[in-house]
Amino acid sequence: MSDKELRTRSDKQSIDQFIQQVRNLPTQAGGGSRGRLIFALDATASREATWDQACHLQSELFLATRDLGGLAIQLAYYRGFREFKATGFVTETGQLLNLMNGVSCRGGRTQISRVLAHAVKETRVEPVRAVVFIGDCCEEPVDELCHSAGELGMLRTPVFMFHEGGDPHARAVFQQVSKLSGGAYAPFDRNSPQVLKDLMAAVAVYASGGAKALEDFSSRSSAEVKRLTRQIR
Question: So which domain of life are we looking at (predicted)?
Answer without folding.
Answer: Bacteria
